[in-house]
Each structure stands twice: as C-alpha cells, then as structure tokens.
Amino acid sequence: MRYEILGTLRAVDGDKSLSVRPPKMRVVLATLLIRADQVVSVDQLVTEVWGATPPRRATAALYVYVSQLRKLLGGGTGEGPILTSSPGYILRTGADELDLQIFQRLVREGRAGLRAGRYEEAGQAFESALALWRGPALSELCNGPIINGFAIWLEEMRLECTELMVETGLRVGRHRELVSFLQALVREHSLHEAFYRQLMLALYRSERRADALMVYQSARTILRRELGLEPGRQLRELQQSILRSGEALDFKAAG
C-alpha cells in the first residue's frame, strides 16, 4: 500500500488507485496518516471532521467511517492497517509507504550531501524530494486543527527544500539557469527574503549587476508596504557587497 498526502489525498494499492470519495471519510484517513503510527483519539477525529459543534451521533458515524476504511485498505479482509488503540485508532505504515516519509528521507540525504560538499548529489536529492509534490498538500481538506496545522508546516518544509535546492545549484555554477526560476519564486512568495537573496546573487553572477540591485529595491518596497519592515541583515549586506563588486560573491568552482 502507498499513501500520498503531498497534494490531494490518494491511496494506491499496486497499480490500483483506491477511491475514498466521502469527504468526511477522507478527513479521517488524512488525519490518521498525518499521525501515522501514533494513536489519534476519537475526540480528535470528531473535532477534525465536524469542528467544535459535532452532531449528536458523531461518534457512531465515525465508527462507520473507520469500518469502511478498514475494508477498503484491508482489501476486504476487515481490519487492515487501522488498529483500535485506546482512546482511539492508529494507522500502521511500513517503510516508505507514505510519500511524506520518502520526502523527509530525501531532504535528510540532501542536507548531508550539502554539509559534505557533495553539491551535485545534494541537488539531486532535493529535486527528487520536490518531485513527489502534486500540488498544495491536502488543500481540499484543510478545515480541522490537525490537518490545517500540518498543511502549514508542510508548506514551510517545501519552501525550505526549494531554498536548499537553489543553494546547491548556485554552489555548482547554475546561476544563469536559475534566474527565471527564482523570478517566479519571488512573485509567488513575495515575503520570502531568502529567494530575493538567491535571485540577487544569481543575477550578479550572470553579469546583471543592475538587475540584482533592482531586485533589492523591489524587495525593500514590498516588505515596507506589506509589513512595515526593512530587509533583513543578509539582504542588506548582499546589496552592499554587490555595490562594491566584492570578489567574495564571484562563483568559484569546487575542488
């Protein structure tokens, strides 16, 4: 069995995609997957499905959803991977059955490669991690506190992985090919200063010093307008280094 939550929720058995159509049943499955191999209480599941004011027979309805999920995931055998464990349920997963587990492993491998100076290897790991994403995580189900909080955390993880992937590209001299990618990132994430910094560096190394300085001015305008803040220290120091044409910013091949 393979579970995918880096996008819309999917469960796949071999080559067969299992259909989990009822929205409330999808919320139950998503919640159990987010807390995979941990007990999720009945009260937590009820809140996740119905909010702060559940109907009178919410617990009975929850039992039905869990029973249906057990039949679906167990191939008709009944219990499957969902076990009863007081005060609720636990969904057992095997190694790499959940795409989130694979994503986290690849990010760890990328970080290790980056620390060791194996930039090509690190970049491949980060690219493979991001390739697992099929869109915003569980965007169709983000109502309850567990799923909503998880989706926010996971989006931060995706942005961090993207930032690290770009960093490895800059370390191996791919500044020219990263410019358009970074321009799209700063349009989509206009308050994420790291992407401005990386775009400025990529432009400077592409012999586009004036464009790099214009990116700083754009970042400063947006941050002041949206947050009332000046750019952070790293962005300011990079601007000053570009104005001085500091040699420290020039690309130096590893080795």
Looking at how many chains there are and whether they match, the oligomeric state comes to single chain
Termini, distance in Å?
A: 44 Å
CATH architecture identity of the domain at 2-91: Orthogonal Bundle
CATH class of the domain at 2-91: Mainly Alpha
What sort of overall outline do the alpha carbons produce when their principal axes are compared?
Answer: elongated
What is the residue-mean pLDDT, rounded to a whole number? 92
Unreliable spans are none
Percentage of residues in helical conformation: 55-70%
Give me the count of strands.
Answer: 6
Write the layout of secondary structure elements.
Elements: E1 2-4, E2 10-13, E3 16-18, H1 23-34, E4 40-41, H2 42-50, H3 58-73, E5 82-85, E6 88-91, H4 99-115, H5 119-131, H6 145-171, H7 175-188, H8 193-205, H9 209-227, H10 233-243
Antiparallel strand pairs: 1-2, 2-3, 4-6, 5-6
Helix pairs in contact: 1-2, 1-3, 4-5, 4-6, 5-6, 6-8, 7-8, 8-9, 8-10, 9-10
